[in-house]
């Protein structure tokens, strides 16, 4: 008697199925932007230098921290992945920026030289996590918010989303002026940031979808 065989993938050369269908691409994007965020953070952490005020302030601009999750969220197809990817990118950026502060040096940790290496490593990591915690919290909020704004911009070309990502370029110099009464660092550095923000705003407006009435 011949047994009927149900159609299905052959065991030879078969590829394991995805655990969650449709998860591979968004996960790959999340990991890619996360790695990019870490590399970006590590790169700009080497820019600030007390000897050059212009480089110092370029390395401490806040606008890139909004643009990165915005672009990350824009690349995703769903709002949930956009939020998660934006968060991952900004938190990874913080980790990359402050990675150089991790230490297992007993003298820097205020511990005896005879302290076991494992204990030094654990203490150093705990101190580092406490040090970066406020920035991680800020990066979490920024990453989630701008990740969602990037996704919103992709699907609606909303004026609100476009203005939100451009705003840090324009608001940051004005905020420093109001806070200190003057612009710290060379004036031309802030002028360049304002020019980039104005140019980005013009480009965003040109990309708006406004069929009958303005989308908000």
Structural topology:
Blueprint: H1 24-44, H2 53-59, H3 63-74, H4 79-98, H5 106-109, H6 117-156, H7 159-180, H8 187-206
Helix pairs in contact: 1-4, 3-4, 3-6, 3-7, 4-6, 6-7, 7-8
Walkthrough of the structure:
The protein is mainly alpha-helical and 216 residues long. It has one domain (24-206). 68% of the residues lie in helices and 0% in strands. It contains eight helices and no strands. It has helices at 24-44, 53-59, 63-74, 79-98, 106-109, 117-156, 159-180, 187-206. The longest helix has 40 residues, at 117-156. The chain is flat, with a radius of gyration of 23 Å.
How would you summarize this macromolecular structure in one to three sentences?
The chain is mostly helical and 216 residues long.
**Distance between the terminal alpha carbons, to the nearest Å?**
69 Å
Strand content: under 5%
Class by SSE composition: mainly alpha
- Report the major sheet: none
Q: What is the H/E string?
A: HHHHHHHH
| Number of strand elements | 0
Can you tell me the number of structural domains? 1
| Outline type | flat
pLDDT averaged over residues: 82
As a whole number of angstroms, the C-alpha radius of gyration is 23 Å
- Show unreliable segments: 9-14
- Give the number of helices: 8
Helix content bin: 55-70%
